[in-house]
Amino acid sequence: MPLTLASTLVQQAHASLNPASPQVRLVDRLGTAMFVTAAVVCLLVFAALLWAALRRRSGAEPVAGGRQERPMKTAVLLATGVTTVILFVFLIFDVSVGRSITTNPGNDALQIRVTGHQWWWEVQYRDSLPKNWATTANEIHVPVGRPVVFELRSTDVIHSFWPPNLSPKRDQIPGNENSLWFQADSAGVYRGQCAEFCGHQHAKMAFLVVAEPADQFEGWLARQRDTAQTPTDSRARRGKDVFMSASCVMCHAISGTSAGSRIGPDLTHLASRRTLAAGTLPNTRENLTGWIVDPQAIKPGVKMPPNQLSGPELLALVAYLETLK
Amino acid sequence: MTAIPADPARPTDDESVRRQLDETWRQTPGLWGWLTSVDHKSIGKRYIVTAMVFFVLGGLEAGVMRAQLARPENSVLGPDAYNQFFTMHGMTMMFLFAVPVMTAVGLYLVPLMIGARNVAFPRLNAYGYWVYLAGGLFLYISFFLNTGPDTGWFSYVPLAGPEFSPGKRVDVYAQSITFTEIAALVAAVELIVTIFKNRAPGMTLNRMPLFVWAMLVQAFMVLFAMPWVATVTQLLAMDRLVATHFFNPAEGGDALLWQHLFWFFGHPEVYIILTPGLGFVSMIVATFTRRPVYGYPAMVLSLLSVGFLSFGLWVHHMFATGLPQLGQSFFTAASMMITIPSGIQIFCWIATIWAGRPRFGVPFLFVLGFVVIFVIGGVTGVMVASVAFDQQVHDSYFVVAHFHYVLIGGAVFPLLGAFYYWFPKITGRMLSERLGRWNFWLLFVGVNLTFFPMHQLGLEGMPRRVYTYLAGTGWGPLNLLATIGAVLVVVGVLLFVINVAVSLRRGALAGDDPWGADTLEWATSSPPPPYNFAHIPVVEGRAPLWEQPGELPAVSGLRTDVRDVLVTTLLDARPDSLHRHPPPTIWPLLTAIATTILFVTLIFTPWGAVIGTPLLLLTLLGWGWPHGRDHQEQRMVEQTG
Amino acid sequence: MRSTRIVADVARLPRTVFGHRSLMWWGTIGFIVIEGSTLFICVASYFYLRRNFSTWPPEHVFRPGLLIPTIQAGLMLLSNIPMVSADRASRRMDIRGVRIGFLVCSALAVIMTVLRWFEFQSLNVRWDSNAYGSVAWATLTAHGTLLLLETAETMAFTVLLFKGPLEERDLAGASDNALYWYFMTGVWIPLYVVVFLSPSIM
């Protein structure tokens, strides 16, 4: 049963054509210059071809011989020369853009480690003090106007981190450490998707980057660092018991409880996220319930099994999860 | 040297010459004759037909994929099926269609074009076809049994390794490539040796047709590129079967080693597919403008440069993997540089058209279509050669658009033009011009409609190899447009198949030379007799049929009662020796069966090597051991001490 | 079919030629290029994977034993003597000379095949222990298939040489077999250096 993502969720078009960082803006400029040149070259070549094929010929014109050789030679040499110059210009342009977008962002940068898993993103905010680290999943917040360095890892297969509005992609390769950095220029919610085929649900391995003003970001980060609140509502408390006794604890961690498994996404602040299942569904009660009951119907092949829970148990569990803000 | 007998082996009058040659060279009738044939034309024809069947299958797979992607969250294919489909589509098109069909046309045409009677190693040629067929059948049987590969035609590790792809699917991937790679290498050796040593007297390298140059360059590229994919797939098979650690980072292996080794093959592979297409274009342009292609030396040097440079580009498939930037820039430079020899050829063809008198037959239409589509693909190629831009569009639909434009434009359109051009020679009948025009225009419009929107989709962030996408991404409308284009492509290909079927029965009779062309294959009948030429022609220029409109000079002296062929020197094609080719034999087929047993059992157990190798050695013994020795002049007088 | 006028007669051309004049020689060269590429890939992978290790061989792995591999390398080089002699004899049409050379080489080939088995043991590492072991075994296996094929071919040829009936062109075939022998033994020397000597040097 297909469940669609509400189109109002993403406020910015998921596109490298809508730059929201100086990196993408530079690349976009390069791309546009190449595109325009390419279009002109194509049109010139097609025009030459059509003219050569369709031009009026006098009956007595010889097909081979000295008189025609000179203009043909000039034309071919000229075209080759122009081609070479164009290529050389773009080579230089490309090397300089490449240099600009990879220069060291400096010590002011925020460090985030993103680890690819089959088929979700582990996001960890690292600080000089380990107790300040915050772990979340699938939704990354960054402060506007400050460079952010991403350490890119993978624990299983090759994935690729690609938020096209903000940055060109970089692969996450098991056994290697890659990195990229960007700076978000304007606030907004930007979508990215895994860009290296990684198995069954490569198609539904998306993430959101929320760029917000620095103070809002700090507030968000502080809340992410907090452990989960103990629920006060009785139904939610029952839901916590369901969580601890069902198979959930085998894979999911909630800080401040005894659930500490890192196999699946950290759920400590699940309710603060906009989407579920790596950007597949809006985070609503109905979607969360459907996901818990049968994830295979939404993302066939995903590692989370269906869960047989009674009606009241399910309601309680969802109520608990909704307290994890 | 013993004395050469006189007359009976070498009749002098033309008709008895042909009769004897026919009896000596013809294929045995019936199924047995087909199974034992060593005639390059018979083998070439079945090779072409088999490759076109795979083309249709690969196209159907693409059709189903496009049906799935026409709407967001569609339910035509689930993820597991879709992953098998896109893998099969890639493998079919790259390994079972594109390279084999070019090879096959080369194996058919090159001996005719150079005035030879057969390829240099007739039995090896047969073996190459059977191994190819076995590989294709093996892949498709596995697919129908739900064990088809599902990790993409380039099958990156660790996804394709033992931990994340249990079962036999990726082993099927690895071993089916072994088959197609053996076949390609066999064909490469054939083409190189035939072109080097079996050319007609007087056909110096300088006088070879441009298509022969293209096949020579392609053959060398195959020779140097294919071993890389053969080896890397065996390393993967070993990681999976016997727990080696080539690609396992936990024990010092390296996931990027796969990519380097694979793409060192993978980049030349696409130029291997392109280069024969460029050769087709040269032949068609010459015939349809009624003049030689302008700039023969530049054309030859360009072909050589493309072949050589293509080995220096492979890292441009790895720009997102985090390799050092300076090294990557080298590959940007090389990837851009290869545009120059490609461009030179296009400019020379346009100049030729300008100077000549074009006739707008269907082959020529396909050449015009090639220029348009290939140039579009070429300019997007320059774009993705740029590291920074590529890091945005890598692994997105922009790249899908790029490579379909260059492959369809650079290989498929010239191939279809070549079919319309040489069908009369192969079958003796003309294809319908009217159906041909419909064929062309449907394909031209369909291809552009299918693939142009994909550039935009890539820029909008749509990654490759996704079985579906969410409605909120906004990718729906362009995907639907692409699917509609795909329908047109299917109809276009269908028209081609209908044209072939109808024309085989009712096409106009072609005669020897319906186009008034300039190369040697048009000097013999359509279809050619089993022995190709009654007398080996002597060549005095680049366009022998135009330069000698009447009688062709030729040599005599080859025996007509055995399969005599003439061997000439490499550079100047001076007659150097005579060589006797073997008669039809079943051993190549048996050896191919032994090869199949070896590689298929290796999927299940390393003991397959112990079972299969002796079997293979046995068949090789049967193949190589001399039979039927009764020719006086060759017998050694025994001198036992 | 176009009519022709005869301008030359080739009936007197030789039928048995050696070296680059022979088609089979070119076929052998093609095969050599293909196998040579495969071995080059093994060596390239060897050095590529080396970069993932701080010590080479890796920790807890002994260096390869050198006794048997060095004997093998020496034998490979020496075996060229009888093969060159057979090659030269073939060009003189000296059947006896070819027979002797091939008989000796057949015996040597069997010995070298047996020694190859012990060379695997000399590596002192299993193929499935780590990437070092994997690539060392792969290199020995890849060359081992050449050795196996050439052993089989040389022995089969020796049988033909003694059993007959022989044609002149079989002696040209003997010369092509020699070419392959030179490759098989010659290419082993750099491989021996890489697999057995370089862990001591590096």
Could you tell me the number of beta strands of chain C? 1
Strand residue percentage of chain C: under 5%
Mean pLDDT score of chain A: 91
Unreliable residue runs of chain A: 1-12
- Measure the end-to-end span of chain C: 68 Å
* Main sheet summary of chain A: 5 strands, mixed
Output the CATH homologous superfamily of the largest domain in chain A.
Answer: Cupredoxins -  blue copper proteins
State the domain count of chain A: 2
Q: Tell me the CATH topology of the largest domain in chain A.
A: Immunoglobulin-like
Q: Biggest sheet of chain A, strands in spatial order?
A: 3-2-1-5-8
H/E element sequence of chain A? HHEEEEEEEEEEHHEEHHH
What's the overall average pLDDT of chain C, rounded?
Answer: 95
Could you please describe the fold and organization of this structure?
The complex is a heterotrimer of chains A (325), B (641) and C (202). Chain A is of the alpha+beta class. Chain A folds into 2 domains: 206 residues, Cupredoxins -  blue copper proteins (Immunoglobulin-like, Sandwich); 89 residues, Sandwich (Immunoglobulin-like). Chain A has 7 helices and 12 strands. In chain A, the strands form 4 sheets. A 5-stranded mixed beta sheet of chain A has the order 3-2-1-5-8. In chain A, strands 4-10-9 form a 3-stranded mixed beta sheet, covered by helices on one side. Chain A is elongated, with a radius of gyration of 27 Å. Chain B has 641 residues and is mainly α. Chain B is built from 19 helices and 3 strands. A two-stranded antiparallel sheet of chain B has the order 2-3. Chain B is globular. The two termini of chain B are 22 Å apart. With 202 residues, chain C is mainly α. In chain C, α1 packs antiparallel against α5, α2 runs antiparallel to α4 and α4 packs antiparallel against α5. Classes of the chains: A alpha+beta (325), B mainly alpha (641), C mainly alpha (202). The interface between A and B is large, with 91 and 86 residues. β1 of chain B pairs parallel with β1 of chain C, so a sheet runs across the interface.
